[in-house]
Specification:
Layout lengths: L1 H20 L7 H9 L3 H25 L5 H24 L2 H24 L15 E2 L6 E2 L2 H21 L4 H11 L4 H25 L5 H25 L2 H27 L1
Antiparallel strand pairs: 1-2
């Protein structure tokens, strides 16, 4: 019963953070599971991936109803990501926990630094103008003009996001959002909505692969994921009150501290 309550509490915290900070908030799920339930990265990653997939699917569905999702771009990235997500899961099952933990900590630190720097300029207008991005919107139809450079940029983003999604149990939004920002002239609302749809599709592909490999612990996954969704719905009520660059900076600092703790723990275990 005590373990069950911990799983539910972790899910509520993850969902609440997700609602306040966006899809990137789910990156904290795997470290929480590792620290609280003493799971390895390979054990926690599929559980985090399921939580990422379900929560992103809800957000993507809402965005789709608002016609913000670029479904053709999302389909291309998701298909390429679906091909590499199972590979990432297989690699995670083969690697020792220590190097996998260090890799995860590196990703956390990257996300923390990127989010912190981004929050510093959140209220400033971006003066940079991307003259000719690979993927451009047609002025008449409003649809993306498909070219080989466009296809290549989106396919590479999907490949990277899919592999990291399976390997570490993260959604890959930290790869997809910057890529869409640089490779297209879509609005940020459309980029975030499309990213949610991609993350949901890639994550669920990874989850199916994890189930097939017997790598998903359902006794932990079910209460954790249900609680994550509940926490997300509760957090949405308060999201507007706490939104802003200060919140994102605080979350970035939290993520950075978690990364340092993970590295310290690996080094401590190796020495002692």
């Amino acid at each position: 019963m005590e373990i069950y309550l911990i799983e539910v509490l972790l899910g509520l915290v993850t969902g609440f953070i997700l609602a306040l900070t966006g899809a990137g908030g789910t990156i904290i799920a795997v470290p929480l599971l590792m620290f609280s339930l003493h799971l390895t990265v390979a054990e926690a990653a599929p559980i985090g991936l399921l939580a990422v997939g379900l929560s992103s699917a809800i957000g993507a569905l809402l965005a789709f109803k608002q016609k913000r999702v670029r479904y053709r771009a999302a389909s291309l990235i998701a298909v390429t990501g679906a091909l590499t997500a199972p590979v990432g899961i297989w690699v995670a099952q083969q690697l020792p926990n220590a190097p996998l933990t260090l890799l995860f900590a590196s990703v956390l630190m990257y996300v923390a630094v990127h989010m912190f720097l981004q929050s510093l300029h959140e209220n400033e207008k971006d003066a940079r103008i991307l003259a000719a991005p690979p993927c451009r919107l047609d002025d008449i139809s409003g649809r993306l003009i498909w070219t080989f450079p466009c296809f290549r940029a989106l396919a590479l983003a999907g490949t990277s996001a899919g592999f990291l999604s399976g390997l570490l149990g993260v959604g890959g939004g930290f790869v997809i959002v910057p890529t869409l920002s640089k490779a297209t002239n879509l609005t940020m609302q459309s980029i975030l909505a499309t990213s949610l749809a991609i993350v949901a599709l890639i994550s669920m592909t990874g989850v199916i692969s994890a189930i097939a490999m017997g790598a998903l612990n359902w006794s932990i996954a079910i209460p954790f994921c249900v609680a994550t969704i509940v926490g997300m719905l509760i957090g949405r009520v308060f999201a507007d009150r706490f939104a802003g660059p200060r919140l994102r900076q605080g979350f970035a600092i939290l993520v950075g501290c978690v990364a340092l703790i993970m590295v310290t723990k690996v080094i401590w275990t190796a020495i002692f």
